[in-house]
Amino acid sequence: MTTIDDIAQGVLRFRNKVFPIRRAIYEELARHQDPQILFITCIDSRVDPADLCDTDPGDMFVDRTPGSLVPVYNGTQRSGISASIEYAVTALNVTDIIICGHSDCGALKALLHPEKLTALPAVERWLHYADAAIAHVQEHHAGQDEHTMLQRLCEQAVVTQMGHMETHPCVQKRLREGTLRIHGWVYEIHTGEVNRYDPAARTFALWPPQAS
Ligand SMILES: [Zn+2]
To answer: Is-contact 102 187, C-beta < 8 A?
Structure first.
């Protein structure tokens, strides 16, 4: 279990060992950022976007929400994630948005057991952005085992969030211009694999396909 003392040691190691080796990268990054990717994933501590994509600092603009959920655009409410999307799409001009769900997602698991949310009213309210996903799973996968239902819910939640993403005016504008792509992923923590949504086939499949 990592404690705050361990974190202090980590910060020291970064300062004294990692930073000096990569000084040129950080000095370049100190002046500007130019990421091409907006990566939205869950707050789960087991999901590390830089680890998963083997990227360096500056490569991806990352935002995280419980369940990797993206609100439907609302022009009157304050929303951190909507501001992140707007900044990434309009100011940074990213070319690709990845919405990355993951296996064993606690936030989505709670939707299968709503009684666990009684002490978490803010989480409960937030999870309403997955209403369409849970409705889909209850309609099409009711009675299946919990693992399967959670897996389907995770996939369906990603698909739902891809639709929510398209309600944001800045995203609509770039999609109309043909200069932005939206990708839906599910990261399998236990295998290290990414399954990507194929809108034409309406299924998730290993991505990229394994090199032979
Ligand atoms: Zn999660």
So the answer is: yes
Burial class (CB in 10 A: 0-12, 13-18, 19+), 63: middle
As given in the structure block, the two tokens for residue 14 are: 């970064």
Provide the 10 A C-beta neighbour count for residue 188: 15
Q: 173: helix, coil or strand?
A: helix
Q: What is the 3-state secondary structure (H, E, C) of 174-190?
A: HHHHCCCEEEEEEEECC
Which pLDDT tens digit goes with each residue over 10-63? 999 999 999 999 999 999 999 999 999 999 999 999 999 999 999 999 999 999
Measure 18 CA to ligand 1 centroid, in angstroms. 29
34-195, superfamily in CATH? Carbonic anhydrase (3.40.1050.10)
Of 63, 43, 65, 39, whose CA–CA distance to 52 is shortest? 39
Distance 164 CA to ligand 1 centre (A): 18
Distance 205 CA to ligand 1 centre (A): 20
Write down the pTM of the prediction. Answer: 0.96
Domain residue ranges of the chain, discontinuous segments joined by +: 1-32, 34-195
